[in-house]
Write the structure tokens for this entry.
Amino acid sequence: MLDLKRLRVLREVALQGSFSAAAESLYVSQSAISQQIAALEAETGVPLLLRLRSGPTLTEAGELLVGHADAAICRLEEAERELGELAGLGAGEIRLISFPSAIPTIVASAASGFRESHPEVGLRLSEAEPEDAIPQLKRGAYDLAVVYDFELSPFPSDRDLELTPLLTERMHAMVAADHELADSGGIRLDQLAEEKWLCGTTEGSCRQLTLRSCEGAGFVPNIAYESDDYTVMQSLVAAGLGVTLIPDLALIALNPAVRVLPILPEPPVRRVWAATLVAGSRSGATETMLAALCAEAESWRAQQGVLAA
């Protein structure tokens, strides 16, 4: 059987990007890290790391092993927390991570209600885009992640994760208030083919939805500005520097100098999920927070006229 301590060391080297940083993180010597990795490679019979000048990089076998290590370590940490609760050693803590535009809408309300109902349970909230949040969830750094994907680019199947649908958001076109199409009742994306465009900075962000939606409308958008902050995007659009797409959850505080237009004939959509480890790995507190998020999403849908999940 593989040594779990050595798997933890391998995971930390991959996460930190160097033997020295992993040693510092785990409070051991660098030579101890090297010995543990060498022993693990001898145990598995295959190389797990490429020792490059730029730093150690996981081999295909290493990637496979770290994926399983994440799941095994998460299960053990969850067991420790649940045992602590049974033994009366504390009420536990919920660690929640979410993409930014969900926080002031569904997440904040759900978290507030949860804290009022369960004041004995600690609550920690962080912000990250899905491409960063999901790996952290799988490493056990968080218990629950609020994430999104698109029908045009769905999440790949992952046996360690369970995705609970919260809502489906429509995307809208956003233009400056003085744009020639600002007073339109709706707009086709190809009407904006000659415009400069704004989109997200990372491949996992709304950047891909913008690119694919425009390509589906028959043109490649001229990307002039990149940002993952919808407040920044609104300011740039208001200044007449370009146009962009914006989802329902980002419409709560609109700049008065922009106009939001329905996309015809059918808008692209963004799907919002609550991601957790598989059901057997979840604590009772995590299940309660998950239920709170589902209830808040349902309330939000009813109030805003957002599409059902």
Remarks:
- The first strand starts at residue 49 and ends at 52.
